[in-house]
Design brief:
- By secondary structure, the first copy, chain A, is an alpha/beta fold.
- Chain A has two domains: about 10-30 and about 305-410, Aspartate Aminotransferase, domain 1 (Alpha-Beta Complex); about 50-300, Type I PLP-dependent aspartate aminotransferase-like (Major domain) (Aspartate Aminotransferase, domain 2, 3-Layer(aba) Sandwich).
- The first copy, chain A, contains eleven helices and 13 strands.
- Chain A has helices spanning about 10-20, 50-65, 70, 80-90, 105-115, 130-145, 185-195, 285-300, 305-325, 355-360, 385-400; strands spanning about 35, 95-100, 125, 150, 165-175, 200, 220-225, 240, 330-335, 345-350, 365, 370, 375-380.
- In chain A, the strands form three sheets. Chain A has a seven-stranded mixed β-sheet, sandwiched between helices. In chain A, strands 9-10-13-12 form a four-stranded antiparallel β-sheet.
- In chain A, strand 3, helix 6 and strand 4 (about 150) form a beta-alpha-beta unit.
- In chain A, helix 2 packs antiparallel against helix 8 and helix 9 (about 305-325) runs parallel beside helix 11.
- Chain A starts with 9 loop residues before the first helix and ends in a 15-residue tail after the last helix.
């Protein structure tokens, strides 16, 4: 196939990189030789500063400071310090976000907290196409409370049709993990609250991908992970946000000693902390938190408006190039075409998506596959260049045009796909 | 005061070190210059091997391997691999222990799992003097299930008097965090099960301090932490054990995607894994897990019978020396005198315990204080020498005899005491 003459050429793409206000940020990350990494929406690459942070945490704080570091190195308040750093990225004023536990655990806390704010109601609304752990945790909460789960796409086609006066809480993804569809946070929050329900936003695919304005949208609760766009490291602890107006009333059953008003008074009964710390539970993995902190220090300097602008530029370009070069090979856009309603990722459906992605990975273009047929490419604006977009589209075209993906090696599935 | 001539002298103590079969293990840890570290029962020191493990995890697995490391570096099954390594130390055959989340979270899972095995019952029995987070989590479980909490020391003087046919689950510490009292695991397990209840053992102060035999005692469930005697690093993830005979039936509401039979099939509904992985929930902090693994590799080589023998030797000696040198200064043994019912720690009560401990810490003898009046000393046999016991007792005598603890600097409390 010859490339349409209307598509941007390499020179045009390189000119965009030269004009990119974020271009210097790429040097802050380790990106392996020969790899175009389009999976930062699954596991972000390592900020170089994380290595020194880990070394200090291990050699100085742990090995030399020992137990004293809980006070002297500030371990005790890391959950809050890091929470406030994430706060700037998600539009949370200080004292409303803490880093702790996993996304799944925080969903559990948030849903129970929502019920504690809305005790007379008995229904959880969620998306049938949600990232599954949200639904699994909602099942767990429903089981312990005798509540009912209503799913978009199962109980009604649209989320909003499910929200009535029985609904205690709506759990919704800001950006869909598979398609990249971005919801209107302010509008859905208003609609939910107008029905007397509480909203919980899952920011796993938006925190660090675009500006988020939780306070501005009067959101009730939010949760998210730190190992994707926020580059916190594999399995880095997650975060949870609760608007200050709710702190005094909200309760959650993972009422561990870290959420206690006086954890070191060793009282027999639970008394929650007055503020956001009541959403903490147990002792957090400090080494992993220090790696995350190195990344958040870097994020402190990032202009989120420029980030979003580049994100739309990268994803628009990828759609344009792939559709221009590959549409005859059975790939079909599975993400919103309009940048305004799209996260920082682009997905295409292909009936043999799994094998296609394996062939891409073998050629150094790392995206991922999401069942049943989606190949997914994340474009993290801090380190992905327009040039990378161009090269990735070219490799995808080659894999499809040559049928390279038919190699039987690419059919075998591994544990994590 | 002159020392009683019957107390062991320095030469006698050093002879015991020379004959110690574990003496070479001390070199595997970093122990800061000028410190006698008797707080390994709160935060274990760093095994030297942890540094290289962290470096490989960060530089190679994360930075170079990126998302591929979930398969290629075995991240996906670390929860199980590490669980089985801990298994050897707690008498758990393979496939019954996983490393995940925090102690508090695992207590929550275990208590709910116990109710799922015993659905007709409505009471949780625990110790009023328990480490508080156990009670706080039990409160959380009781609140979500409408269950009732009965406490030893509140509702009856002895735990066994509380166990009747309403009791679903008994949550009990193998070794008490404050006094070091060790319970008879086999006997209490039998007694509990004879009443039709399920037992959950908290091993926070016994895993890595002595041989534990969960399978041998037919225990139902157990949980514990890895950052104390197991030297996993600050806030290292905790573990949970469930006997294989229960796997098929037990359910717990923290039903996140990692506990799903097919996490990467992205199914809409939760289907628990057939085995111990149903006690997993979300993605774990890999960097912290790698530090823990370095320590567990070291633990693989330890003879637990020799460990226990030395533990009793160290703690017996400390009691003998402190009572011989310090009893006139108001310290009173707050631990069992009989080594057979004592964990690897010794506690003394002193009305000004907080200040006494601060004075000790200022002199390089690091133990800790537990409200209201306990000074607590942990003796981890892998790196504590008989000589350290002798020196610590001597410093304690000096602090008490000179009244050095009265210095006003030692009265100020910090966040973590």
């Amino acid at each position: 196939m010859t490339q349409s003459s209307k598509l941007p050429d390499l020179a045009a793409v390189e000119a965009r990189d030269a004009a990119d206000p974020l271009r210097s940020k790429r040097d802050l990350f380790v990106l392996p030789e020969g790899v175009i990494y389009l999976d930062g929406n699954s596991l972000g690459p390592a900020p170089k500063a994380a290595f020194a942070a880990l070394e200090t945490a291990a050699h100085q704080e742990w090995a030399q400071g020992l137990i004293r570091s809980w006070n002297s190195a500030g371990w005790f308040t890391l959950t809050d310090t890091l929470g406030d750093q994430i706060g700037r990225l998600i539009g949370s004023g200080p004292g409303q976000t803490v880093v702790s536990d996993t996304t799944s655990i925080n969903i559990y806390k948030a849903l129970h907290a929502a019920f504690s704010l809305n005790p007379g109601r008995s229904v959880i609304v969620a998306e049938g196409s949600s990232f599954p752990t949200d639904l699994y945790m909602a099942e767990g909460v429903a089981a312990t409370r005798g509540a009912k789960l209503r799913l978009e796409g199962v109980d009604a086609p649209g989320l909003e049709e499910l929200i009535d006066d029985k609904v205690a809480v709506v759990l919704v993804n800001h950006v869909d993990y598979r398609s990249g569809l971005m919801r209107d946070m302010a509008a859905l929050t208003r609609k939910t609250q107008a029905a007397g329900a509480v909203i919980v936003w899952d920011l796993c695919h938006s925190a660090g991908a675009m500006p988020v304005d939780l306070d501005g949208a009067s959101v009730d609760l939010a949760i998210g992970c730190t190992y994707k766009y926020l580059n916190g490291g594999p399995g880095a602890p997650a975060f949870i946000y609760a608007a200050k107006r709710h702190h005094e009333k909200l309760m959650q059953p993972l009422s561990g000693w870290w959420g206690h008003a006086k954890p070191f008074a060793f009282e027999q009964g639970y008394r929650p902390d007055a503020g956001i710390r009541r959403l903490l539970c147990g002792t957090q993995p400090i080494l992993s938190l220090r790696a995350l902190q190195a990344s958040l220090d870097l994020w402190d300097t990032i202009d989120l408006v420029a980030l979003r602008q580049k994100s739309i530029g990268l994803t628009d370009l990828f759609i344009e190039l792939v559709e221009g070069m590959c549409s005859e090979y059975g790939v079909k856009l599975a993400s919103p075409r309009d940048g305004k309603t799209r996260g920082s990722q682009v997905s295409f459906a292909h009936p043999e998506g799994y094998a296609v992605m394996q062939a891409l990975i073998a050629r150094g273009v790392i995206g991922d596959f999401r069942a049943p047929d989606v190949i997914r490419f994340g474009f993290a604006p801090l380190y992905i260049r327009y040039r990378d977009v161009y090269d990735a589209a070219t490799v995808l075209r080659d894999v499809l045009a040559t049928g390279a993906w038919r190699d039987p090696r690419y059919a075998t599935r591994s544990a994590v796909t």
